[in-house]
Recover the amino acids of this structure.
């Protein structure tokens, strides 16, 4: 009897300790601690390790995406080598036409894929804030001058660049975070996207202050910091820089190189999920790099920007314990879910600001690990040439459920302006994992700003449940 009491006490202590530990992590409604593990959802998948996209499938898909204009992706090698800078700047000046035509102000709503602007308001100056302070006309005038006041004219040649640091891509050449709400200083409406380390870009021209370059990446265009782009001497050097057989993929949410006092180019460098780096052939690996033996490390080439702005590479060490993979991961549902869960709890950042991801960048980064070149934003991703069911939000509930029940973990769901990975069903509820900015809770707005697990019961700002708002389902492994 005493023995049984002792065992009972131990069990009570064990479960009470477990409960206390789990309570340190708060979750959204209807989400428990077990659901916060990828394995919980992977166990629900039939044949979780089955390859759903082979390397040949992915090659065909990437080519099909490039050949679909609505995805706004582009083969950088096919961009014309010259362009007329006067015509391009004239087009950019149109963005600032409100400076010449009106003093009226326009209240800017949150930028999203479904945002619309009335025609009569197109030329009105947006209400913006910098450090909680109202942005006046002078700011926009200086911004326009930084874009348009260039000493270049006529037809000029493009340049070819390689990104040396993960860098923000913005609609305008400004370091400032510009918001549409003085009480929301971490939502930069100028953010467009990010460019990863070793990613190639085509360079058009610099800003007047030379601090920014207007570039085209494969998935979008915008202004990036000049210091983050190394310029190749010619097109051949640029092409050769991208031509490597053996490579390392960063499969962790992000990794950092070791601290170094002798190599400022490499010390603590951040590499985010999906970054692709050339591996140095084993026979060419030096015995030491920067006074460190190269044993137990992957040796890669990392790009650097020389003092004159030119491109070069240096060997760098990435510890074998880092979350990286030689070559692409195999595209299975288990791997998709595992990759998505590596981001769980991470910050959400519009456009990828603050070294983070937004909803569509999360999808893009996960798929980069498999070699899939997804388009950049939600509406463009919905145009990839695979099976897509649309207008689900207009269907009766019974038909929606038929579609949702046919989905498998890793498929992609979209509602206007938002995209997410489907996880599966538990306790009669549908679940997703996604980088979410805000939701409505108890009829009040709630800033989530994290990668989170959510149910279809989640409500949007307008009070409508996701179940009623989901408009599209994308099946990346199925043909149209």
């Amino acid at each position: 009897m005493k023995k049984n009491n002792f065992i009972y006490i131990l069990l009570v202590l064990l479960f009470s300790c477990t409960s206390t530990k789990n309570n340190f992590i708060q979750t959204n409604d209807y989400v428990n601690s077990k659901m916060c593990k990828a394995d919980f959802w992977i166990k629900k998948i039939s044949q979780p390790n089955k390859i759903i996209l082979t390397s040949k499938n992915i090659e065909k898909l990437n080519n099909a995406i490039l050949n679909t204009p609505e995805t706004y992706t582009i083969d950088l090698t096919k961009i014309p080598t010259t362009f007329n800078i006067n015509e391009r700047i004239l087009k950019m000046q149109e963005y600032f036409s409100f400076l010449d035509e009106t003093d009226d102000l326009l209240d800017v709503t949150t930028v999203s894929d479904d945002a619309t602007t009335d025609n009569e308001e197109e030329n009105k100056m947006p209400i913006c804030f910098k450090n909680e302070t109202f942005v006046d006309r002078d700011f926009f005038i200086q911004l326009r001058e930084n874009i348009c006041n260039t000493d270049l004219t006529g037809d000029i040649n493009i340049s070819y660049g390689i990104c040396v640091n993960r860098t923000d891509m913005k609609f305008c050449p400004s370091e400032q975070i510009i918001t549409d709400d003085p009480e929301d200083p971490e939502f930069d409406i100028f953010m467009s996207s990010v460019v990863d380390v070793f990613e190639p870009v085509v360079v058009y021209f610099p800003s007047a202050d030379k601090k920014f370059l207007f570039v085209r990446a494969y998935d979008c265009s915008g202004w990036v910091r000049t210091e983050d782009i190394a310029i190749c001497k010619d097109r051949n050097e640029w092409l050769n820089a991208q031509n490597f057989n053996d490579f390392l993929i960063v499969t962790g949410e992000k990794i950092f190189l070791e601290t170094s006092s002798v190599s400022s180019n490499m010390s603590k460098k951040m590499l985010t999920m999906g970054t692709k780096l050339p591996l140095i052939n084993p026979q060419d690996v030096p015995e030491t790099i920067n006074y460190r033996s190269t044993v137990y490390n992957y040796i890669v080439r990392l790009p650097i920007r020389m003092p004159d702005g030119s491109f070069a590479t240096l060997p760098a060490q990435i510890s074998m314990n880092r979350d990286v993979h030689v070559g692409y991961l195999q595209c299975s549902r288990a791997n998709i879910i595992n990759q998505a869960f590596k981001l769980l709890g991470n910050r959400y950042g519009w456009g990828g600001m603050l070294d983070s991801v937004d909803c569509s960048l999360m999808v893009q980064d996960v798929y980069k690990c498999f070699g899939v070149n997804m388009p950049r934003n939600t509406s463009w991703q919905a145009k990839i040439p695979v099976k897509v069911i649309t207008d689900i939000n207009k269907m009766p509930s019974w038909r929606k459920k038929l579609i949702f029940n046919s989905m498998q973990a890793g498929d992609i769901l979209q509602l206007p302006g938002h995209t997410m990975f489907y996880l599966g069903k538990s306790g009669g509820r549908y679940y997703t994992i996604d980088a979410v900015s805000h939701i409505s809770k108890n009829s009040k707005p709630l800033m989530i700003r994290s990668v989170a697990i959510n149910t279809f019961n989640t409500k949007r700002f307008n009070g409508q449940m996701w179940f009623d708002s989901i408009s599209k389902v994308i099946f990346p492994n199925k043909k149209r």
Q: What stands out?
A: Confidence is low (pLDDT under 50) at residues 8-21, 102-122.
